Amino acid sequence: MSSDPTLHKEMPNLYLLGFMGTGKSVLGKRLASRLHCKFLDSDTAIEKKYSMTVKDIFARYGEEKFRQMEREFMDGGHPSSGCVVACGGGLVCRDNMPELVKSKGVSVVLFSTPEEILERTSRNRDRPLLNCPNPLEKINTLLKERIPFYMRSGIAIAADKNLKVTEARILRIYNARLRALGYGKKNRKRQSFQPQNKAKSPPSSF
Questions:
Q1: In order of start, what are the domains of the chain with their CATH numbers?
Q2: Are 21 and 112 in contact (CB under 8 A)?
Q3: What is the pLDDT of residues 88-112, one digit of tens each?
Q4: How many CA atoms lie within 13 A of 85 on its CB side?
Q5: pTM (2 decimals)?
Q6: Alpha helices, DSSP H only, in the chain?
């Protein structure tokens, strides 16, 4: 299979996971273009469905309500195949959510250092969880809480500052999964989709 397969409608979704500011949306759009498929962002999909921003949902209904909306999105609020999906940073951080995401397609978890995350997120004021006096401390606290969930959710990689490097890493992972499932091979029966093994630890550069 070439490095740029076409993501046909029946092929498994590619899910990008990880903390806010790790480049999921930017990379997701680039990958969708490379794979000739649809790009979805879970936060954007929820905002469109409820005609509210994530910030307003947090303010009016609280975080738990937003997490319920994320689960509804994963349960059936998006196409079951043929998409690249950038997931919100806390989407997998509830019981059974890592397993649910893995059951839906190929999932890759992006990691960046807290300092890199702060640099990227400081440009965006619409981050309700980081609206606090010490955002770097909050990032470290949230990462400590979320890493166990991230490690259950997919294959962990370092989000390089060079987007092309990270993009290539993700494509290699996705292509390997497609080959394992029999996509792109003539006269070979495709296997039913099975979740990939969970990551055991964050990437060494994290």
A1: 13-181 (3.40.50.300)
A2: yes
A3: 999 999 999 999 999 999 999 999 9
A4: 28
A5: 0.86
A6: 24-35, 42-50, 54-61, 63-76, 97-104, 114-121, 135-153, 163-181
